[in-house]
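Q: What does the predicted 3D structure of Macrophage-capping protein look like?
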Amino acid sequence: MVSHKEFVGAGKTPGLQVWRIENLDLKPVPKALHGSFYTGDAYLLLFTTSAPSYNIHMWLGDECSQDESGAVAIFATQLDDFLGGGPVQYREVQNFESNTLVGYFRSGIKYQKGGVASGFQHVVTNDMNVKRLLHIKGRRAIRATEVDMSWSNFNKGDCFIIDLGKDVYQWCGSQCNRFERLKASQVAIDIRDNERNGRAKLHMVEEGEEPAAVIEALGPKSTIAPGTDDEKVDTSNRKKGALYMISDASGAMKVSAVAPSSPFKQAMLSAEECYILDNGVDRNIFVWKGPKANMSERKAAMSAGQQFIKDKGYSNKTQIQVLPAGAETTLFKQFFIDWKDKDETTGPSKAYTIGRIAKVEQVPFDASTLHSDKAMAAQHGMVDDGKGKIWRVENGAMAPVDPSAYGHFYGGDCYLILYSYRLGGREQHIIYTWQGLRCSQDELAASAFLTVKLDDSMGGSPVQVRVTQGQEPPHLMSLFAGKPMIIHSGGTSSKGGQSQTSSTRLFHIRQSSSRATRAVEVEASASSLNTNDVFVLKSPKAVFVWRGMGASDEEMAAAKHVVGFLGGSAAQVSERKEPDDFWSALGGKKDYQTSKSLQNVVRLPRLFGCSNKTGRLAVEEVPGDFNQSDLATDDVMILDTWDQIFLWVGNDANAVERNGAPKIAKDYVDSDPSGRRGLPITTIKQGAEPPTFAGWFQAWDPKMWETDPLARVFGLPKCQKPMLSPSLG
């Protein structure tokens, strides 16, 4: 077996590893620059969960050379070999990436001009001598493409980022709406935090109100073009598939038809063979490797897929997924009417999910297993040894938090967490800035200033990560020596507190897909319960630990820490066996999330947005693990929980979206290759979400839309909402 020196640390710990092809060799890309791709290059990505399971992606830029695309294909095959042939392999092409890949980068993908051949390097610096223009496209999958610094590249329908180093300007066209502005701000924040180490200032610029610095950078302003229609694949043939068998029995690879159209039966796949599932009309090809197929067929899977695309005359932008048996993705399984995962008939516990966020194990961190790259640390879920320091922002200064309170975060506060660890014999640092949803504007501004000050005091070397309450990354949640991160809805940890805590409190405990556990204070009402999770209820008279039918032992273990903090002796309560005083403490019985599919999640819920922003009604899936902030208030969203479909109508959705979405939802179910028919479709309006819907989002916050999230990013007064176009939703 051929092995590369870079493979030594490959797949050893959960998370994402990225390499670029440089001089036909692999060079690691620093963590702070993950998600940034040069269009003249090819990249190899490995995503590892703690199951462990693996995804290998080879990414090809529009201008990468034939030699580079050939080299990355060889390295992908070698890495697949090195990991025992078990990974799912993806071929990714610029602008047409899979949702799996896009889901790794919540703040979007950035395309930069140039590449290795032009001398462009992936280096994290504090260089402020930057001058570039980024065109932001996409409402769900965000892509930022570097274009020439010229007004001729602007249009009224999109957001652009004018990056001048110390100042980063987000320019918003008069026809772009609030949700697009919010998504574009994620790119701007990423540039500030990861590329400038928190030293740049963000500015919001409206079309027609450009400041002098922007005019100076771009020259005299010319006429701005109207908004353009995004290129969309025709959706009328979506999910149509054909099945072929690959065989080399004759000595040459041969493809023969098995079934001309979906849905298929799982029995059509023989363990002794390899197959191609052709969904070319939707730019997808799947190659399935039978566990008993011969080695030459299994190794040739990716090249067979590429040859198939050529023979069929499909676009070279077509995605290819190579799937070993047992690691089939949701996209693949949906073409089968009777798909059963291994052991599914006996009722699986929570399944390890392939291609989602890594599961971070609570194990002592061994730095020797990592590459000697200083920026790799933050992605590996390193468990804190208790040597980190935490400060609360108080009166514009840093007030140390008592170590006994580490792991507790209050919604009325901002915190700085300095996490230090040794790597390659040198001390390394990460600064997390955690911002509560109920902290003041002054505290938000002070937290940003104090982060830069702390970074400066350490020579500008720390990695900075800014975190908003409810959006904590897995590695931050894993820092507290095996204890859950406990988030209090409001108040402060400063002596005296800003607000009196309620006499009755309810904490929602959930283990995320990354296996990091978080306890979040929610409204003390029976409607907040969820059959999939554990809750701790404290009333003036008693403390209860409520275990839902789908809850895990890890969630129960985390509950002990919450009880320890709240005080008292807890009574354990099982779902459906609750005593009367439990319900009375919650104000009486109410409906809550009891979907059976939550208890044994095998098919993950999926979230889609329906928008006619481009002039016709289009549907787009939200990539990665979704959360409440992915619900676009100017769209209609479809939540597919497998046994039920929800239509969520945003307050700013327009008439076309409101009227067209129900038909889309019905067509979506009726055209499902797995043969689902007649599922209930529930329509819900923003602000009136029942627990059967809200339960799919951890720690649902019914007040989330009362404040403007853009105001938090750009420091606008809370009442000032960015302009909306009256003609668009």
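A (community wiki): The structure tokens above were generated from the sequence. The radius of gyration is 26 Å. DSSP finds 15 helices and 34 strands in the chain.
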